[in-house]
C-alpha cells in the first residue's frame, strides 16, 4: 500500500523552504527538504508583490524535491500572520414575540458575521466585504429585549441581539499564494496561518495553560502569538523584522542590500572581523563589535516594537517569550526584548525545533529557528482542516476557503448574501388616531425564502462538499398597510332635518390631519382622523354654515360710521312642540329648526348707556325710592329726541350729548321723579321738605336723602 505524502512550502520574505514527508502511523517522517532565497525583493512584509518571481523560486524548489520524492501535485502553505484582523460586531433580529429556535440563533450569528465583514471592508477602504474570508468567530453575548442570555433557543421576545468577535483573512493574501503555486502546476491542499503553524510546533496544548508568547521574527514581519488559560488568546504582527537590521548595515557602510544581508549573518559566527565591498568598490574589513555598535539602536527599536505589540495583546508581560524565525538570530535581540518587557533575561530565549511531536527524522539543517514555521505547516498538512471547496450558488461558481466542515452558511457569506433576507420581514404596521383613540393596524406577513442543496431543502448548518449545487431564493417582505378610511372607521349614517323651511342633510364631518376627507382617503402612519356626526344644535348650525349668520346694522353716531351685529336666536321644534333650545341641545332626524330674526337694537344698546349701567344717586321721594342720574344724556334719532329704549333701524343717524352732574339738586330729583308742578292748579301751593326741613329747588341732594312735597 502506497503511503500518503505531504508537501509543505514556507514562502517567506527572504527565502522559500520546501519539505516533503510521508505518513507513518500517527507521525509524518521527513523525506526531503530544500531552501532557496529570492533573487530580488519579490516579497515585502510577508506579502507577495511579484508573483512570477516568487513562482520561479517555487518551481525550482519543487523540481529539486521531485528528484528525490517523485511528482508533487498538492502543497500545503501558510499565510502571513500580519493579515489577521479581528472585528467586534453586533446584529439584531426582529422576532415579533415568536418562540426562537436554533435556526434563529444561527441566523443571528451569521448576520453579525456579515456586519463584521462590512465593518472590516469599510475600515480598510474596500467597498466589497466579500473580499475577506471569515476564519472564525466567537459569541460574546446574546440578549433578548435587552436582557442578557446564554442562549436564545426556547425564548420568546421582540428583539434578539448578538455580539461576536470575528476573525478575518483578506482574500488578496490567499489569492496571491494560490496564483503563485498554480503557476508552477500545484494545487493548494491546505492553508494555515504562519503563527498558528509555529505555535503548533513549540507550544502544544499541554503547555497553553502558561502565559507564553511566541515571536516569529522573519525578514519583513514579526508575528506574535500568545497562549493563556489553555488556549491561544491572540495573534498580532509587527511590520518590522530582520530586514530593518540589514537596512541599518546597508546605510552605515553603503552596501548593496544583499551584501548587507551576508554581513548580518556573519555577526553571529565566531569571526572577529567581517570583510565586504561597498557600492563604490572599496574593500573594508570591520570588526564585528563595530558593526554591532552601529546596529544597536535599530535592534533596540525592533525589540521595543515587538514588546509594545505583546503588551497590547496580553496587557502585562508574559511568563516567557520564545523567539523563532531567521530574524531571531539577530545579535542582542533577546536581551533587548527582555529589557523592553522588564522580565529576566533568561525568560526570553531562541528556540530550535530539535524534537517535534508528530514529526520524525528532522535533519540537523532543519533544527534551526527559521525552520519552525515550515515544520509546523508540514505537521498541520495532515489534518487537512484548511482547504478549498468548489460549489455553485445560483449558477455562480464559488471557491470557498474551508476552515473546517463547510456549511451552507459559509457559502452564503462568501457570496455576500444577506442572511436576514432569507427570512423576509413582516410589513411595518401603522398607528393612527380615531377621534382621539389610538389604533394599530399590523403589516402583512412575510413569505420565507428557501435554500435548496442539490435540489433538496437545506438549512444553514447542512454540510457542503465539492461540486455541490446551491439554489437560494430570498424571502419576500410583507407590506406596510395603506387602508382607505372607510376600512378602519365606522362612518355614521347621515340624517335630515328642516332648517328655516329647507331640508338639510346632516352628514359626518371627516378630516385627516386637519384636512377634509372621505371614506376613500388613504391612511398613512400617524394619521389623525376625526369622524363625527353633528348631533348638538351648535354642531348642526356649524355644519349647515349658520354659525356666523349674524345681522349687521350700520349707523352714523356723532358723524362717525359705526357697525353693530346681532345674532339670531335659534329655536327648536320637535313633533310640533317648541322646545327651549340651547346650543348643547341634541338634534334628531326630522327635527324642525328655526332661526328667529333678532329685534332691532335700542339706542341704549348701541350707545352703551342703558339705564342700568348709568351712575346714579338714590333718594327717598315721598316714601318711594327714586334714582337720579349723575350723567344727563341727550339723544336724537334722525334729528328727533329719543330715549335709550327707543329701537333704532339700520341706517339711522344718532346724536348723543352727555352732561356730567356729579352733585344733583332738588330740581333734578323732581325731574327724575317726573313731578311737574305745572300740572297742579294755579292756586296750589307746593312746599318742599329735604330731610323734613324746608328747602329750595336749587338745594343739593346726596345719596340716601329724603324728599317730600306738601301741596296745599
From TrEMBL:
Source domain of life is Bacteria
What InterPro entries would the database entry show?
Answer: ATPase_NBD, FtsA/MreB, SHS2_FtsA
Keyword terms = Cell cycle, Cell division
Keyword Cell division attributed:
yes
**Keyword Cell cycle set for record:** yes
Q: Which residues form the SHS2 domain?
A: 6-202
Pfam families noted in UniProt = FtsA (PF14450)
Name the GO terms of the biological process aspect: cell division
* Name the UniProt record assigns to this protein: Cell division protein FtsA
Species classification: Bacteria, Bacillati, Bacillota, Negativicutes, Selenomonadales
Amino acid at each position: 500500500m502506497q503511503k500518503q505524502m505531504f508537501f509543505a512550502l514556507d514562502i517567506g520574505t527572504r527565502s522559500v523552504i520546501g519539505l516533503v514527508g510521508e505518513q507513518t502511523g500517527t507521525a509524518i517522517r521527513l523525506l526531503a527538504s530544500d531552501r532557496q532565497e529570492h533573487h530580488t525583493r519579490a516579497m515585502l512584509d510577508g506579502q507577495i508583490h511579484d508573483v512570477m518571481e516568487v513562482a520561479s523560486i517555487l518551481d525550482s524548489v519543487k523540481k529539486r524535491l521531485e528528484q528525490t520524492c517523485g511528482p508533487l501535485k498538492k502543497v500545503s502553505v501558510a499565510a502571513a500572520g500580519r493579515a489577521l484582523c479581528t472585528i467586534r460586531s453586533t446584529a439584531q433580529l426582529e422576532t415579533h414575540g415568536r418562540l426562537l429556535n436554533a435556526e434563529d440563533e444561527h441566523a443571528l450569528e451569521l448576520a453579525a458575521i456579515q456586519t463584521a465583514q462590512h465593518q472590516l471592508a469599510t475600515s480598510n477602504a474596500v467597498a466589497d466585504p466579500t473580499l475577506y474570508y471569515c476564519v472564525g468567530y466567537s459569541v460574546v453575548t446574546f440578549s433578548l429585549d435587552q436582557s442578557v442570555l446564554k442562549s436564545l433557543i426556547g425564548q420568546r421576545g421582540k428583539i434578539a441581539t448578538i455580539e461576536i468577535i470575528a476573525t478575518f483573512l483578506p482574500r488578496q493574501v490567499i489569492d496571491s499564494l494560490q496564483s503563485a503555486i498554480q503557476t508552477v502546476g500545484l494545487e493548494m491542499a491546505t492553508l494555515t496561518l504562519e503563527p498558528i503553524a509555529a505555535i503548533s510546533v513549540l507550544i502544544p496544548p499541554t503547555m497553553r495553560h502558561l502565559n507564553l508568547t511566541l515571536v516569529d521574527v522573519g525578514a519583513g514581519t514579526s508575528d506574535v502569538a500568545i497562549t493563556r488559560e489553555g488556549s491561544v488568546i491572540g495573534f498580532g504582527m509587527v511590520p518590522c523584522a530582520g530586514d530593518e537590521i540589514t537596512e541599518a548595515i546597508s546605510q552605515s557602510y553603503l552596501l548593496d542590500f544583499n551584501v548587507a544581508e551576508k554581513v548580518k549573518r556573519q555577526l553571529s559566527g565566531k569571526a572577529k572581523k567581517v570583510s565586504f565591498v561597498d557600492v563604490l568598490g572599496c574593500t573594508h574589513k570591520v570588526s564585528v563589535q563595530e558593526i554591532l555598535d552601529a546596529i544597536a539602536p535599530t535592534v533596540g527599536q525592533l525589540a521595543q516594537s515587538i514588546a509594545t505589540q505583546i503588551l497590547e495583546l496580553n496587557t502585562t508581560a508574559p511568563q516567557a517569550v520564545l523567539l523563532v524565525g531567521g530574524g531571531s538570530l539577530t545579535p542582542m535581540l533577546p536581551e533587548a526584548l527582555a529589557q523592553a518587557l522588564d522580565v529576566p533575561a533568561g525568560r526570553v530565549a531562541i528556540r530550535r525545533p530539535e524534537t517535534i511531536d508528530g514529526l520524525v527524522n528532522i535533519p540537523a539543517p532543519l533544527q534551526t529557528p527559521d525552520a519552525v514555521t515550515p515544520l509546523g505547516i508540514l505537521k498541520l498538512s495532515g489534518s487537512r482542516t484548511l482547504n478549498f471547496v468548489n460549489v455553485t450558488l445560483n449558477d455562480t461558481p464559488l471557491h470557498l476557503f474551508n476552515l473546517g466542515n463547510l456549511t451552507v452558511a459559509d457559502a452564503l457569506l462568501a457570496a455576500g448574501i444577506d442572511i436576514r433576507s432569507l427570512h423576509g420581514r413582516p410589513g411595518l404596521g401603522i398607528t393612527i388616531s380615531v377621534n382621539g383613540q389610538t389604533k394599530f393596524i399590523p403589516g402583512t406577513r412575510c413569505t420565507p425564502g428557501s435554500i435548496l442543496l442539490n435540489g433538496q431543502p437545506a438549512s444553514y448548518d447542512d454540510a457542503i462538499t465539492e461540486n455541490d449545487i446551491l439554489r437560494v431564493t430570498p424571502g419576500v417582505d410583507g407590506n406596510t398597510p395603506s387602508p382607505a378610511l372607510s376600512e378602519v372607521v365606522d362612518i355614521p349614517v347621515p340624517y335630515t332635518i328642516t332648517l328655516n323651511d329647507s331640508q338639510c342633510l346632516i352628514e359626518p364631518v371627516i378630516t385627516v390631519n386637519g384636512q377634509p376627507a372621505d371614506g376613500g382617503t388613504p391612511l398613512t402612519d400617524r394619521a389623525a382622523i376625526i369622524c363625527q356626526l353633528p348631533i348638538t344644535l351648535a354642531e348642526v348650525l356649524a355644519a349647515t354654515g349658520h354659525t356666523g349668520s349674524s345681522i349687521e346694522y350700520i349707523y352714523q353716531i356723532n358723524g362717525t360710521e359705526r357697525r353693530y351685529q346681532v345674532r339670531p336666536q335659534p329655536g327648536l321644534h320637535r313633533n310640533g312642540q317648541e322646545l327651549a333650545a340651547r346650543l348643547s341641545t341634541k338634534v334628531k332626524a326630522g327635527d324642525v329648526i328655526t332661526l328667529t330674526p333678532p329685534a332691532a337694537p335700542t339706542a341704549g344698546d348701541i350707545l352703551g348707556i342703558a339705564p342700568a349701567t348709568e351712575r346714579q344717586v338714590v333718594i327717598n321721594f315721598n316714601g318711594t325710592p327714586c334714582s337720579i342720574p349723575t350723567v344727563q344724556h341727550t339723544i336724537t334719532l334722525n334729528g328727533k329726541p329719543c330715549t335709550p329704549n327707543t329701537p333704532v333701524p339700520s341706517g339711522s343717524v344718532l346724536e348723543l350729548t352727555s352732561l356730567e352732574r356729579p352733585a344733583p339738586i332738588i330740581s333734578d330729583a323732581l325731574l327724575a321723579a317726573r313731578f311737574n308742578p305745572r300740572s297742579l292748579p294755579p292756586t296750589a301751593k307746593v312746599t318742599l321738605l329735604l330731610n323734613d326741613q324746608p328747602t329750595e329747588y336749587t338745594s343739593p341732594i346726596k345719596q340716601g336723602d329724603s324728599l317730600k312735597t306738601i301741596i296745599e
